[in-house]
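Thread amino acids onto this structure.
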């Protein structure tokens, strides 16, 4: 089972490397998503700041126009001969009311725009944080999987060494007592014993395939044959 466990070792080692790479990708994607969300929030805030300055400038121009309109109304009232307490002041009041209403509407619309922009920026950052957290959780899970594959690769490597030692040791002992044929049988028996011990190693070939049934049968047959010889 040395060759098979070497294959299992390489497979688990490769899978660990792939899984660890996927973990790094997941973490990088989370950071990129967070950076994108924070960048979007910054753009929203910058645009909101510009909009605020524009509104302030528009209100200032509106106040200037209001002052000019009020001055024109006062001049007109003076030239008409109406007093400030008389009906001549109605036009001036109407003009002021119109400008004040426009100013209030602009200020109210700006306040709504500001609240909406701040909320959008906050939500963008929160979404970025959540996406990074989810990606990091996925990365941590994949890292844990990679560590499992590392352990499985280590077990497969250990099983490979155990199988080789079992086969070589069995061949030596079998050769001492039974010559070439005994060496071959001893190698099979030693490999079978090692195969049985490797079953408990998660990641080994035997743990994935239920052990080597052929070698187990050879081992049992040889042991039965030897027992019958010894009992004669």
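Threaded sequence (232 positions):
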């Amino acid at each position: 089972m040395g060759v098979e466990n070497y294959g299992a070792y390489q497979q688990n080692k490769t899978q660990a490397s792939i899984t660890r790479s996927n973990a790094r990708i997941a973490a990088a994607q989370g950071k990129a998503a967070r950076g994108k969300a924070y960048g979007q929030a910054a753009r929203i805030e910058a645009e909101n700041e510009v909009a605020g300055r524009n509104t302030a400038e528009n209100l200032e121009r509106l106040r200037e126009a209001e002052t000019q309109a009020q001055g024109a109304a006062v001049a007109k009232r003076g030239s008409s001969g109406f007093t400030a307490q008389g009906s001549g002041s109605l036009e001036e009041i109407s003009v002021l009311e119109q400008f004040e209403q426009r100013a209030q509407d602009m200020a109210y619309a700006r306040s709504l725009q500001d609240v909406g922009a701040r909320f959008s920026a906050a939500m963008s950052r929160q979404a970025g944080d959540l996406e990074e957290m989810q990606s990091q959780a996925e990365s941590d899970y994949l890292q844990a999987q990679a560590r499992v594959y590392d352990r499985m690769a280590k077990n497969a490597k250990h099983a490979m060494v155990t199988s080789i030692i079992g086969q070589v040791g069995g061949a030596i002992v079998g050769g001492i007592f039974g010559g070439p044929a005994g060496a071959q049988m001893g190698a099979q028996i030693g490999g079978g014993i090692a195969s049985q011990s490797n079953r408990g190693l998660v990641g080994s070939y035997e743990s994935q395939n239920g052990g080597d049934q052929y070698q187990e049968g050879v081992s049992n047959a040889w042991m039965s044959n030897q027992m019958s010889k010894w009992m004669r």
